[in-house]
Design goal:
single chain, seven-stranded mixed sheet, 11 strands, 54% strand, globular, mainly beta, 117 residues
Length: 117
C-alpha cells in the first residue's frame, strides 16, 4: 500500500508563490513516477506535472514557466513549486502515483490552493 500526504496549500494573492509537498510512505519512493493533479471548482481533475523515478519532469502548457516539479528521494517527498500564481490556478491539488503491479492509482487527500485577484 502507498500513502500520500500533501501539504502547503493556502490563500495567496495573484502573483504570489506557494510550494506544495507530498510525502509518500509504504513503498519504495525512489522507484516511483509521481504526479501532481488539480481540480478546480466544478471542473474535472487535470494533470499539472509529472516526474519520473529518474527525475525527468514535464509540466502542462498552462503552467509552463511558472510551476516546477521536483523530488527528494532521501525524504520520500515530491514538490510542486508554484510561482506567478493566477486566480485560475485555484483548486485542490492532489499528489498521485500509479502502481503497475496493482493496476491502480494512489491519491493523497488533496491540499487547497486559493489565488485571489
Amino acid at each position: 500500500q502507498v500513502q500520500l500526504v500533501e501539504s502547503g496549500g493556502g490563500l495567496v494573492q495573484a502573483g504570489g508563490s506557494l510550494r506544495l509537498s507530498c510525502v509518500a510512505s509504504g513503498s519504495i519512493f525512489s522507484s516511483r513516477d509521481m504526479a501532481w493533479y488539480r481540480q478546480a471548482p466544478g471542473k474535472q481533475r487535470e494533470l499539472v506535472a509529472t516526474i519520473t523515478s529518474g527525475g525527468t519532469s514535464i509540466v502542462v502548457e498552462s503552467v509552463k514557466g511558472r510551476f516546477t516539479i521536483s523530488r527528494d528521494n532521501t525524504k520520500n517527498t515530491v514538490y510542486l513549486q508554484m510561482n506567478s500564481l493566477k486566480p485560475e490556478d485555484t483548486g485542490v491539488y492532489y499528489c498521485n502515483t500509479y502502481s503497475l503491479a496493482r493496476g491502480r492509482n494512489y491519491w493523497g487527500q488533496g491540499t487547497l490552493v486559493t489565488v485571489s485577484s
